[in-house]
Recover the amino acids of this structure.
């Protein structure tokens, strides 16, 4: 469904897909990417159990899911997702026959035809943004700023880099406990006043990187808590015998791919600070971990 909405908004309405109508494009892009990967696993399960109807449904899910992800322009969802999807196909390669590979080729072709041009445009903006960011920083080093400082970094990627840099500086200044919420704005303003970072960072309340966000506010304690949140489900199912063709092992594999995908989305946004992000993460963990542990007991 999300793929159909994305196609309609992009080609029918001429707007960025999943950027209006209550959607938050960077969050939805990650969810669509995860659902696409889950559809890959559904297709694999259909191959293992000889379920042609499930394979057809999964084929549609894979294609429309990746189309939605690309058309949404949520570049943070593109960082890890292709590697996880490719790994899944390689890991279960012995499951596929010639017709399955033909279906993969057809899916990739449909994705490329419908979404690759807008996606390449969005990807190209990253390099343009970073070039502008480098130019601004080079000028700052060569000249003194005016007394009234105004934001000079005005691109999406450049702003993120400056926010990450600011978060790193704040954390290194308060490595154990971070700045805390009460002193966060004050400490960030101090960096701006000292002309260490661009004033654009004052327009954003988050670091747009989940780990750096935790480190700057809560220090190493918050950073370790985030790592524990991601590793706990993995460790809880570590003793499970993950044979790739068993139901138990299959649930373990999907669980771990889910965790890796969420960690990838966290690289460019504070994913689980949003209600949608934390709900999507916890729901996936509960479903896949409970499947693995229940099958282990049985």
């Amino acid at each position: 469904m999300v793929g159909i909405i994305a196609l309609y908004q992009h080609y029918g309405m001429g707007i960025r897909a999943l950027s209006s109508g209550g959607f938050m494009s960077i969050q939805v892009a990650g969810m669509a990417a995860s659902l696409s990967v889950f559809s890959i696993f559904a297709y694999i399960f259909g191959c293992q159990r000889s379920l042609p109807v499930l394979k057809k449904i999964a084929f549609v899910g894979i294609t429309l899911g990746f189309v939605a992800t690309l058309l949404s322009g949520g570049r943070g969802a593109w960082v890890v997702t292709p590697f996880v999807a490719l790994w899944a196909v390689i890991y279960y390669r012995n499951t596929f026959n010639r017709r399955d590979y033909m279906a993969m080729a057809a899916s990739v072709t449909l994705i490329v035809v419908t979404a690759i041009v807008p996606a390449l445009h969005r990807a190209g903006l990253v390099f343009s943004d970073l070039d502008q960011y480098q130019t601004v920083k080079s000028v700052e080093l060569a000249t003194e700023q005016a007394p009234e400082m105004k934001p000079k970094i005005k691109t999406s990627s450049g702003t993120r880099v400056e926010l990450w840099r600011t978060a790193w500086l704040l954390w290194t200044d308060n490595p154990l406990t971070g700045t805390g919420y009460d002193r966060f704005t004050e400490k960030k303003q101090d960096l701006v006043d000292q002309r260490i970072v661009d004033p654009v960072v004052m327009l954003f309340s988050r670091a747009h990187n989940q780990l750096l966000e935790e480190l700057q506010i809560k220090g190493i304690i918050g950073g370790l808590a985030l790592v524990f949140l991601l590793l706990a489900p993995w460790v809880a199912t570590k003793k499970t015998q993950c044979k790739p063709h068993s139901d138990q092992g299959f649930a373990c594999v999907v669980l771990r791919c889910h965790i890796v995908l969420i960690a990838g989305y966290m690289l460019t946004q504070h994913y689980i600070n949003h209600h949608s992000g934390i709900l999507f993460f916890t729901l996936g963990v509960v479903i896949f971990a409970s499947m693995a542990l229940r099958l282990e007991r049985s």
